[in-house]
Specification:
Layout lengths: L1 H30 L14 H36 L10 E2 L5 E2 L9 E2 L6 H4 L7 E2 H7 L28 E10 L7 H21 L6 E3 L2 H9 L2 H12 L3 E3 L14 H18 L5 E4 L8 H8 L4 E4 L4 H9 L4 E4 L11 E5 L15 H5 L30 H12 L6 E9 L5 H19 L6 E5 L2 H12 L12 E3 L6 E3 L2 E2 L8 H13 L2 H14 L11 H14 L11 H6 L2 H20 L20 E2 L8 E2 L1 E2 L7 E5 L6 E9 L4 E4 L8 E7 L5 E11 L4 E8 L6 E3 L1 E6 L14 E5 L5 E4 L3 E5 L6 E6 L6 E10 L20 E2 L7 E6 L3 E7 L3 E8 L7 E8 L7 E9 L6 E6 L3 E6 L11 E3 L2 E5 L3 E7 L3 E4 L4 E9 L18 E11 L10 H11 L3 E4 L24 E10 L7 E11 L15 E2 L10 E3 L23 E6 L3
Parallel strand pairs: 3-50, 4-14, 5-12, 5-13, 6-7, 8-9, 9-11, 10-14, 19-21, 23-26, 27-28
Antiparallel strand pairs: 1-2, 10-11, 15-16, 17-18, 20-25, 20-47, 21-24, 22-25, 23-24, 27-34, 29-30, 30-31, 31-32, 32-33, 32-38, 34-35, 35-36, 36-37, 37-46, 38-45, 39-40, 39-42, 41-44, 42-43, 43-46, 44-45, 48-49, 49-52, 51-52
Protein name: Alpha-mannosidase
Function: Catalyzes the first committed step in the biosynthesis of complex N-glycans. It controls conversion of high mannose to complex N-glycans; the final hydrolytic step in the N-glycan maturation pathway.
EC number: 3.2.1.-
Length: 1123
């Protein structure tokens, strides 16, 4: 009866709020000129004005109705479950056995404006070429093309250039990537000599040109290149030396997350802005396949043109035959042309000299003058180059023939010819060999008008500008009838059925560590806020502003790891060990977070004292070595108890379960205002049967904020509930040894399905394997089959075997088997329930939370250890009854979704794709999304999702590495499995719940214990930096302190704010996210100065009260001065 009265009172309050809201809306419509329609659209009569106001009022009423409806649903849900405030009742079990949690009295709603749903159902990009259609069209038959093995015979008429001579730009370059040697070793042995010689040799002849892309190497050289700096600047300003792309590295495009891709691009461009100039053209000759995300990021950084190389040979042949190798690359979701960027695709096998002058590598090799007899390398085709002298200079016409044939593959009469390879031009001799001989060839060609050619050295931008000039269009515009393309270029095969799909998973330990560090770059946000607060309080001198150097070090370590031979897992073992700088970066970021949190949670800043050797807070976990898994910090409780500071690194309020490791089972948790929270006490298992204690409690955290909690050792509290733990053992006589208050039951395993459940989900598990079998949502009458299986791939018995790059399986995979049945542990409690199945080579942990958002998806951790295997690859399959046909969806770099098809005409390995953050299958009823916290390879066949978990391979795959993959680590692969009911089928974007799930998985709450102090702990308080709520379809990508112009390791007063407006699929039922989630059509963002993505170009400053609009999928950068 009491509950019914509470609901009645609550309902009355809602009614009052609704009436008052309507009053405010009427007043707002009457007085807010921004809400009025344009006066020119209506007659200026009182009736028309009134009609206009009524229409607006109807729209506002509809929006208000949605909000009231959501609040009503929340109230009804309380009535159904009988949940009340924590002060009233304890957690209890409902009639169906699931736990019901105390409700914190704060209703939540999901209110998405109808206009924000239109993007997902609107027409997609209008393009001439869609890559999914190209895949459907091609036979992938690999016919012998003659001298151009993967192409066709090229012919031309001698008079084709009579009216318009062929312009040839030969572009010398040197590709520098830390791969077989470490970064420092390459720099010492080769790179510094390349750059030193570059300055000297380019200065000898103003006709010489050169391009450079990797700023990590260039910046290291610049530090000690004082004698060369002035001349290098002169060469750049004179157009002889061009910096292309300008990223910290030439990033991988398959595994890298878009946050890290942007961050390394900013790091490179910020260095260039401080020291040199701004890049205009992109150069990517070595990433193993190309993502559609990269052209978007380059376009947003004001790069106007780009070049790509490693693309499936069948696609290159098709594009060559249709003369479509140059195109405008448009984003698949762009209905206009605002994302278009001009792109040049290289047509042949490689970017080395034999495969760049024309279709015949035997002839091209004769014009690679580093291969002159007596050198370290020669031509495999047995015809060596000859130095150019007057007697043989006419052989330039042999080269001209190749130029003409290559030009026939393009639409313009302007030709690009790269001249370089890996670490070329490291000796002065090669500069002379290439430049002097080529200049003689150019002089001969240019002095014979009957040849109709103008040949010269050039930079990449020289080439692109010549194309634009030939068609009379501005830089970056579409030349003539060049095609418009959308889609991506995965998977990559360089010959036969050799698909480079193995590297999507190779060395998953480091792929996972990379994402952990990216998550910790939330330190950027906390640091920016702390420094701004310290400046405002006049305490900048007392705050460790020098932590900025740690941020710079972490940015550059993460940036270096995005390289296409680093995050890909395709470097030598000693180089991988050198990437241990990642651990140093992680430790540095934790220190930045601790120092910022210390300052921000101090209630009275006068009590703030910073001591370098006495940190105020402790880190949440530790890693013993760079190749070990983290160990959670043990919190020592006592009757006075430590304080715990929790950091929420995302821009939305967060209602979630937090787990900490404690030294006692007598645990009590209080909020800042003294409210006791429910605690689930459970076991921390060091093995299948060994355990200690951990405490889980539910918290509500402010967006980008810090909250303070008090933990202490207390006599049994009714709010502390012990988990129920059951060991399912098959014929074993093992008994668990446990702390007495944490009893463990055991029983013999049987084949019958068993279940765990929350208020939202019920999961079914196999009684035999302990693996997931089904998911049933509370609001769905249908139980959906989702059967987890583990499979083993072998490699081919022939000479071509799987390696770091290639996936060459010996056929379909075989089910994973072991002699002993698994040990299965079932844990149930009010905040979470989980099932852990322990196998010899992996451990599956499936957990569900009794919390909004967290509770809508299934938390899965697979601990993999295949170090005793030989030439084996372990995969996880999810076999469902979702009828997706041959269509599935994978993300590109965590930024956008790309539809895929499983093609029977392709070999099995050709149907795997990179998954950076998620993949899903769907039919007209359900969508099943696998969210991932690390990049892995994935495929789908017959209602399945299959992800490769780890690979151990004993041999090289003949792509230059010279090693197999034998340095495997024990790796924790983390996922979230989200099952959603579909209301309608639309073009594919993640739902709002899916976006939230991905954010929670990739940005975990950090739990920072306050270390005991002799002088006692000063008063602490919650830090909530946001004055207003950020719309839940806007992701705050970064708040990055900008360097000073003089000192790159000191912050300026300015901060870069990077925002990404998410595109949302509304074809799903609304869910209670646990916080108020609304959208604003991308408006209501008050900012200062719009910038290009990498902060090198600025737009007109906005007034402080200006409102900007972000379109769905748009990423934008702004420069702020925090006060």
């Amino acid at each position: 009866m009491k509950l019914r009265k509470q609901v009645t009172v609550c309902g009355g309050a809602i009614f009052c709020v609704a009436v008052f809201s309507l009053y405010l809306m009427l007043d707002r419509v009457q007085h807010d000129p921004a809400r009025r329609q344009n006066g020119g659209n209506f007659p200026r009569s009182q009736i028309s004005v009134l009609q206009n106001r009524i229409e607006q009022l109807e729209q506002l009423l509809e929006e208000n109705h949605q909000i009231i409806s959501h609040i009503k649903d929340s109230v009804m849900e309380l009535t159904d479950t009988g949940a009340v405030s924590p002060s009233g009742h304890l957690p209890f079990r409902s009639a169906n056995g699931s736990w019901v949690l105390p409700f914190d009295g704060r209703p939540a709603f999901l209110a998405v404006k109808p206009q924000d749903c239109q993007f997902a159902v609107s027409t997609r990009a209008q393009t001439d070429v869609q890559m999914l259609d190209v895949y459907s069209l091609l036979k992938f038959d690999n016919l012998d093309g003659g001298v151009w093995k993967q192409g066709f015979d090229i012919t031309y008429e001698p008079d084709e250039w009579d009216n318009e001579p062929l312009q040839v730009f030969v572009i010398p370059h040197s590709h520098n990537d830390p791969w077989v040697k470490t970064f420092d070793k390459y720099f010492t042995d080769q790179t510094q000599h390349i750059l030193n010689n570059m300055v000297v040799k380019l200065a000898e002849d103003s006709r010489r040109k050169f391009i450079w892309s990797e700023i990590s190497f260039f910046a290291k050289w610049w530090e000690t290149a004082d004698v060369y700096k002035q001349e290098a600047m002169r060469l750049i300003l004179g157009g002889q030396l061009e910096i292309v792309t300008g990223g910290w590295v030439m990033t991988d495009e398959a595994n890298a997350h878009y946050f890290a891709m942007i961050d390394q691009l900013i790091e490179g461009h910020q260095w260039l802005e401080r020291n040199l100039i701004t890049p205009q053209s992109g150069w990517a000759v070595d990433p193993f396949g190309h993502s559609a995300t990269m052209p978007y990021l380059l376009k947003k950084a004001n790069v106007t043109s780009m070049l790509i190389q490693r693309i499936h040979y069948s696609i290159k042949k098709h594009f060559s035959s249709t003369r479509s190798l140059e195109f405008m690359w448009r984003q698949a979701w762009d209905t206009g042309s605002s994302t278009d960027i001009f792109c040049h695709m290289m047509p042949f096998y490689s970017y080395d000299v034999p495969h760049t002058c024309g279709p015949d590598p035997k002839i091209c090799c004769q014009f690679d003058f580093k291969r002159l007899p007596g050198g370290q390398i020669n031509c495999p085709w047995k015809v060596p180059p000859k130095s150019v002298v007057e007697a043989n200079v006419a052989e330039a016409e042999l080269l001209l023939d190749q130029y003409r044939k290559k030009s026939k593959l393009y639409r313009s009469k302007v030709l690009l010819v790269p001249l370089g390879d890996d670490f070329r031009y490291d000796k002065a001799l090669e500069w002379d060999q290439q430049y002097i001989n080529y200049q003689k060839l150019f002089d001969y060609m240019n002095s014979h008008p009957e040849l109709h050619i103008q040949a010269q050295f050039g930079t990449l931008t020289d080439y692109f500008n010549a194309v634009y000039k030939a068609y009379g269009v501005p830089q970056g515009s579409r030349p003539g009838d060049f095609p418009v393309l959308s889609g991506d270029f995965f998977a990559y095969a360089d010959r036969e059925d050799h698909y480079w799909t193995g590297y999507y998973t190779s060395r998953p330990f480091y792929k996972s560590l990379d994402r952990v560090i990216e998550s910790h770059l939330g330190a950027e946000i906390l640091y920016s806020l702390a420094v701004a607060n310290a400046r405002h309080a006049g305490m900048e001198g007392r705050y460790p502003v020098t932590d900025y150097a740690l941020l710079v070090d972490a940015r550059r370590s993460v940036g270096l790891f995005q390289h296409h031979d680093a995050i890909t897992g395709t470097a030598k073992e000693n180089v991988v060990i050198d990437y241990g700088t990642l651990l140093r970066a992680l430790i540095g970021l934790k220190r930045v977070i601790i120092n910022a949190a210390h300052f921000l949670v101090m209630k009275n800043k006068e009590f703030y004292r910073f001591y370098q050797t006495e940190p105020f807070l402790e880190t949440d976990d530790r890693r013993a070595t760079q190749d070990s898994l983290p160990q959670r910090t043990l919190i020592e409780l006592d009757p006075a108890g430590p304080y715990l500071v929790l950091f929420n690194p995302i821009e939305q309020e967060r209602l979630c379960a937090v787990t900490v490791l404690v030294n006692t089972v007598r645990v009590r948790v209080l909020t800042e205002d003294g409210q006791t929270l429910p605690v689930q006490l459970s076991a921390q298992w060091s093995s299948a049967t060994q355990m200690s204690a951990e405490a889980t409690f539910m918290v509500r955290l402010p967006p980008l904020g810090l909250a303070v909690f008090h933990l202490y050792d207390s006599a049994d509290s009714p709010m502390t509930i012990r988990s129920d733990t059951l060991l399912r053992l098959s014929g074993r006589s093992v008994s668990a040894r446990a702390l007495d208050p944490l009893p463990v039951r055991s029983q013999p395993a049987d084949a019958q399905t068993f279940y765990i459940s929350t208020q939202t989900l019920t999961l079914g598990f196999s009684g035999t394997t302990g693996l997931l079998e089904s998911i049933k949502r509370k609001d769905d009458p249908q139980e959906v089959k989702i059967q987890m299986q583990f499979m083993i791939y072998g490699t081919r018995p022939s000479k071509d075997k799987s390696g770091a790059y290639l996936f060459l399986p010996d056929g379909k995979p075989k089910p994973y088997n072991q002699k002993e049945p698994p040990a299965v542990r079932v844990v149930e409690g009010p905040l979470f329930s989980e099932v852990v199945a322990q196998y010899q080579h992996f451990q599956q942990t499936v957990r569900i939370h009794n919390v909004p958002v967290d509770g809508l998806s299934v938390d899965i951790t697979i601990l993999v250890d295949i170090r005793d295997q030989t030439n084996k690859e372990l995969s996880m399959r999810l076999v469902t009854n979702i009828q997706n046909g041959d269509v599935f969806y994978t993300d590109l770099n965590g930024y956008q979704i790309q539809p895929r098809r499983f093609y029977q005409k392709l070999p099995l390995q050709g149907n795997f794709y990179p998954m950076s953050s998620q993949a899903y299958i769907q039919d007209s009823h359900h969508r099943l999304t696998l969210h991932t916290a690390q990049a892995l390879g994935i495929s789908s066949l017959d209602s399945q999702l299959e992800v490769i978990m780890d690979r151990r391979l004993m041999q090289d795959d003949n792509r230059g590495l010279g090693q197999g993959l034998k340095d495997n680590k024990k790796t924790a692969n983390r996922f979230r499995l989200l099952l959603e009911m579909m209301d309608s089928v639309t073009t594919s974007f993640p739902s709002m719940v899916s976006h939230a799930t991905s954010s929670l998985l990739n940005h975990e709450v950090l739990a920072l214990p306050v270390l005991p102090k002799r002088r006692g702990i000063p008063p602490l308080q919650t830090f909530a930096p946001l004055k207003s709520v950020i719309p839940c379809d806007v992701h705050l990508l970064n708040l990055r302190s900008i360097q000073t112009q003089k000192d790159p390791e000191s912050p300026s007063p300015y901060t870069a704010l990077l925002l990404h407006r998410l595109a949302t699929d509304c074809g799903f039922e609304g869910q209670n996210l646990g916080y108020n989630c609304s959208t604003t059509q991308g408006r209501d963002l008050q900012l200062l100065q719009p910038m290009s993505l990498t902060l090198m170009h600025s737009s007109m400053p906005l007034a402080n009260d200006s409102i900007i609009t972000l379109e769905p999928m748009e990423i934008s950068a702004f420069k702020l001065k925090l006060r």
